[in-house]
Amino acid sequence: MSRLQVVSGKGGTGKTTVAAALALALATEGKRTLLVEVEGRQGIAQLFETEALPYEERKIAVAPGGGEVHALAMDPELALLDYLQMFYKLGGAGRALRKLGAIDFATTVAPGLRDVLLTGKACEAVRRKDRAGRFVYDHVVMDAPPTGRITRFLNVNDEVAGLARIGPVHNQAQAVMRVLKSPQTAVHLVTLLEEMPVQETADGIAELRAVRLPVGRIIVNMVRPAVLDETDLELVRAVERSSLARSLGAAGLGGARRGGDAERLVDPLLEQAEEYAERHALEQDQRAALGELGLPLHELPLLAEGMDLAGLYELATELRKQGLS
Asked: CA spacing 20 to 30 A to 192: which of 39, 105, 172, 200?
């Protein structure tokens, strides 16, 4: 598995949940994972049922086998201070700039700079080593912006490197792009088995490939359990109403009278079966469309009891079973 795992997807597909589950899955057997949030929504804190995350790397979970998940909620202003200190050694002058509002001004007027700082911080964590020369984190998982913005977000350093021909800004942008466009990185896209998310996934993959960013896998989230198979669906289409009513009556449904209220149960049951058949056909069409994109495809179940910390561990286990660890 690549060391930088970027997770994107159309809004509402559960990309933050998938990113968190992936971080847990990758942290098994004593490994250390850093989960990075770049949109400032504190979604990671909510999922792991902890207080709002500060701009610092903090352990938030222990994975099976003793691994650790650390999290970082990115702050563009503080990331810019880090950058200024790293390359220009501003020290207290950097803090003074923040008080004057210069940093907020810079990240607002030049939004591309904000993305450079966010991607740069994640790539720095990928490259970071301890005193013994070992990587501090085995994997870094980034909960990235939605599919519609992901290509520009990741490719902004290429644009900056072209604008700033020399100097530390140019060198930093090039260093980041060396990570993002290398086998160290994989960009995964989260979708649902619905037409709009699938189309946006296909468009996102095309855009990422156009700028040579490494596309990883497609993860289909919130997949409903199969209730009827193809044989059952054919039987439903062929069954006669009177025969179904008799069967319901014989089973004691709908009252004791011959036919009884069983007749009234037939239409609602057939309507439900028809709705299920339509949804099943739509989902099969979307699976086929995703299969044509030529990427590994994984599916995560819709959790009947909703998403909580236990559910997050359940999804992580499912990802491990499917080889994403």
From this structure: 39
Count Cβ atoms below 10 Å from residue 275 Cβ, excluding itself: 10
Q: For residues 43 and 146, is the Cβ–Cβ distance under 8 A?
A: no
What DSSP string runs through 67-109? -EEEEEE--HHHHHHHHHHHHH--THHHHHHHHHTHHHHHHHH
Q: Is the dihedral of CA 63, 67, 73, 74 positive or negative?
A: negative
Q: Which residue has the higher pLDDT, 95 or 298?
A: 298
Lowest mean pLDDT among 71-75, 117-121, 137-141, 163-167: 163-167
Over the stretch 96-134, which tens digit does the pLDDT of each residue have? 555 545 455 455 545 567 788 788 889 999 999 999 999
CA 144 to chain centre: 8
The secondary structure element, H or E, covering residue 157 is helix 147-163
> Quick check: 84 and 168 in contact, CB under 8 A?
no
Residue 220 · residue 289 · CB < 8 Å: no
Q: Which amino acid is at 225?
A: P
Please state, for a pLDDT cut of 90, what percent of the chain lies above it: 54
Q: 243-255 as b/e, with b when 16 or more CB fall inside 10 Å?
A: ebbeebbeeeebe
Contacts of 1 (CB under 8 A, 6+ apart): 26, 139, 186, 324, 325
pTM value?
A: 0.84
Q: 68-73 and 32-37 as β-strands: parallel, antiparallel, unpaired?
A: parallel
Picking from 203, 34, 242, the residue whose alpha carbon sits closest to that of residue 125 is 34
Instruction: Identify the CA nearest to 154 among candidates 125, 188, 108, 119.
Output: 119
Which neighbouring-strand residues pair with 129?
A: 135
Residue with tokens 């970071």: 128
Kind and range of the H or E element at 59? strand 58-62
Which of these, 48, 50, 112, lies nearest to 76 by C-alpha position? Answer: 112
Cα gap 238→236, rounded to integer Å: 5
Sign of the torsion formed by the C-alpha atoms of 158, 204, 35 and 66: negative
